[in-house]
Amino acid sequence: MTTLLRTPSTWPAILLARRDEADPTDLAAAVRAGAFGGLTRAVRELGPAATIGLIEEAKLRGRGGGGHLAAEKWRVAARTPAKARYVVANGYGADPGSTTDRALLETDPYAVIEGAAIAAFAIGAEEVHVAVRATATDAIGRLEAAIVASLEAGFIGDDALESGRRVEVLVRPVQGAYLLGEETVLLKALESKRGQPEQRPPHPATRGLHDQPTVVHNVQTLAAVPYVLRHGAAAFRAIGDAEAPGTILVEVRGPDGAGVAEVPLGTPLRDVIALVGAPARGRKVKAVVVGGPAGGILPPAKLDTPYAFEALRAVGAHVGSGSVIVADDRACIVDLARVLTRFCADEACGKTIPCRIGLRRIAEIGERLTARTSRAGDLGLLVDLSADVVGSALCDHERLATLPLMSGLRYFRAEVDAHLERGECPAGVCRPIARPAAAVPGRSRPTSRQSRAQA
Questions:
Q1: Contact of 76 with 200, CB cutoff 8 Å
Q2: Rounded to an integer, what distance in angstroms lies between the CA atom of residue 298 and that of residue 333?
Q3: Segments of the chain assigned to CATH 1.20.1440.230
Q4: Against a cut of 0.85, is the pTM above it?
Q5: Intervals of CATH 3.40.50.11540 along the chain
Q6: What does the H/E/C string look like for the chain?
Q7: What does the pLDDT look like over 133-172, one tens digit per residue?
Q8: Do 58 and 240 contact (CB within 8 A), yes or no?
Q9: CB proximity list for 28: less than 8 A, separation 6 or greater
């Protein structure tokens, strides 16, 4: 089971409002707490167009990392002529260090089912596919039990809420690589095809699952939809950041604790990492990795940054998988960036040259920095390669995989220089490390063209 962190009483609970329920699959208890009130309003009062309008008014944005407006996807899918439409709820949780999606499915499966059913009603879809990691057996079991109960109560099924509309919810256990977090790769997996991203446009909202219009959302996005329907757009916008209202689940990990917390968007990073307590006596925070394996490494000076989409991008990080990892002064930033970059390179599908070759060359620079093989011009080469990858990448995995080393270079340059120029690891992590002959201080840095030739 996932550990749920306690948060300040002033923070609202939307996604984990039922965290203390003894049995999350108890439908009667869920209904008493308001479950399916939003779906009932959408079907019997608002209708599809007004439902989409309400989601737009609430400014609900996707919690899967991209932060796109949910209503835009819904409206495009609803207006695209098609034989069928689909809703796909991504609860796979591709980041091996984050269990946020699993925590939600284990804690309140009805919120995900209801939110997905509302989306299906709004766009005219008859099938909802909930993708879950095959090894998340507790989440799968609770989700399946909740679907059966919802079906027996008439909230979903062939005549959902006596509307004449069919809404079938299917659990789709999947297993694969980190890239399943990318929506087009997930759709390929659901079709039992090779998991590689597709060029966009067309976006899934116009051509997705089985080449039909498909709304793909993280399960957290869908779980927030019933709250908007029950309480209204204004009440939702009153929570969190003005441009990204509501809450989001964050997996916070530190040297002395870890767990999942529901955090209002816009909360300063300082308050987020405080949920796992202060560093051990004699230790201090050295860096915070925000966004998962392809996240940015931020220094303590950036801890007042709001945990929100645009604010994090501005400082070289992103929401990503909802992972926030705290590193104390025992960590080597160069080695940390190396490990993260190597993971991203290993998980890359290799469909394009920036993915297949560019990320591998960037990872090799990180390997050289922590060993005894650094070359003069490695940092210039890193900057050039990263720019090339970001500018020509097919998917966000390639673009974001450049962040660990680039943010390390941006904020921890002195530590990078110690490795490159003096063959030293200030943290004492990288051993043995010796000054390479090609990195003698004072030697001029090669031009971009020379850097490319060395690659």
A1: no
A2: 10
A3: 333-454
A4: yes
A5: 27-237
A6: CCCECCCCCCCCCCCCCCCCCCCCCCHHHHHHCCCCHHHHHHHHHHHHHHHHHHHHHHCCECCCCCCCEHHHHHHHHHHCCCCCCEEEEEECCCCCCCCHHHHHHHHCHHHHHHHHHHHHHHHCCCEEEEEEECCCHHHHHHHHHHHHHHHHHCCCECCHHHCCCCEEEEEEEECCCHHHHCHHHHHHHHCCCCCCCCCCCCCCCCCCHHHCCEEEEEHHHHHHHHHHHHHCHHHHHCCECCCCECEEEEEEEECCEEEEEEEECCCEHHHHHHHHCCCCCCCCEEEEEECCCCCEEECHHHCCCECCHHHHHHCCCCCCCCEEEEEECCCCHHHHHHHHHHHHHHHCCCCCHHHHHHHHHHHHHHHHHCCCCCCCCHHHHHHHHHHHHHHHCCCHHHHHCCHHHHHHHHHCHHHHHHHHHCCCCCCCCCCCCCCCHHHCCCCCCCCHHHHHHHC
A7: 999 999 999 999 999 999 999 999 999 999 999 999 999 9
A8: no
A9: none
User: Residue 151 and residue 167: Cα distance in Å, rounded?
Assistant: 10
Task: Return the amino acid letter for 101.
Answer: D
Each residue of 365-424: pLDDT tens digit? 999 999 877 788 889 999 999 999 999 888 888 899 999 999 999 999 999 999 988 888
Cα separation, 419 vs 119, in Å, equals: 52
CB 172 within 8 A of CB 132: yes
247: nearest Cα among 367, 104, 92? 104
Of 212, 56, 43, the closest CA to residue 118 belongs to 43
Distances (CA, A) of 242 to 58, 247, 248, 273, 374: 10, 12, 14, 22, 46
Q: 27-237 has which fold?
A: Rossmann fold (3.40.50)
Tell me which residue has tokens 């093989």.
373
Is the domain covering 333-454 a CATH 1.20.1440.230 domain? yes
